[in-house]
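ok trying again, last paste got cut off:
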Amino acid sequence: MGSALSSQLINGVYIPSALLIVGVAIIKREWLPYAVVLAAGLGSWKAFNGRARKILKPDQYQEFELTEKTICSHNVAIYRFGLPKPTDILGLPIGQHISLAATIQGQPKEVVRSYTPISSDENPGYFDLLVKSYPQGNISAYLATLQIGQTMKVKGPKGAMVYTPNMCKRIGMIAGGTGITPMLQIIRAIVRARPRNGGKDTTQVDLIFANVNPDDVLLREDLDALSKEDDKFNVQYVLNNPPEGWTGGVGFVTSDIIKANLPAPATDMKILICGPPPMVKAMKQATESLGYSKPRAVSKLEDQVFCF
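nice, full thing came through this time. structure:
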């Protein structure tokens, strides 16, 4: 977006300025110097006004309007929230998340939960949240009742993980359910930054994605498309209740499944884990039993095993 040859600058600044100058040169040549000054001034103003503006404030909640709601299943939806300007971005570093807050009837105080958008700063003007609603869930159930035009309180960025290209040679990921969202954020950033796309990221990424039923596998089309596009990204699906003819993993994610699909313990690799608390607890124990560094209660960026 910041490129001097971006389509926004070409169509919104360069072409109109050139047309103004050429038009004045044809109609009244002696006004040409004034036209050049005017075009330069207007162009500079428009270029400055159209710059990407980071909206998030880490110490202050802001309200963002729900502009679109896409139903994915009976309890999963993608919520799109608009930013003040079409050129605005959240300004969320890769690997970090945002906090959502709401006052919910029956709760003694404001309820806060963390979510990772499935969109990125490559998508100006809005952000998307993939949310699975649970009967006992507070924010997820609140979001399910939110109507187009209503607002949600948001604050951020938050989190200890900040991904940078080639921060390690290999990354192994274990995700369960909606725990796929921070993984997808990182995977997309890595694929965007591949040498073939003009970047320098050569990180090998291997993902284990665990769910109960086939219908529970969120964003599978996106993951399969990324795997097909990128030969350094592999995904292994694991189901508790697999359909007939299933060729992926079956049951819970075990030490054997981790050993078969993720990088072995080394100084130049990381394991990332995100999912329901019981799963995260089990994966901590499984990775430690395989020789990875023991995960901390609260993960830090430098940890070999990082839990979101």
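cool. The first strand starts at residue 62 and ends at 71. The mean pLDDT is 91.
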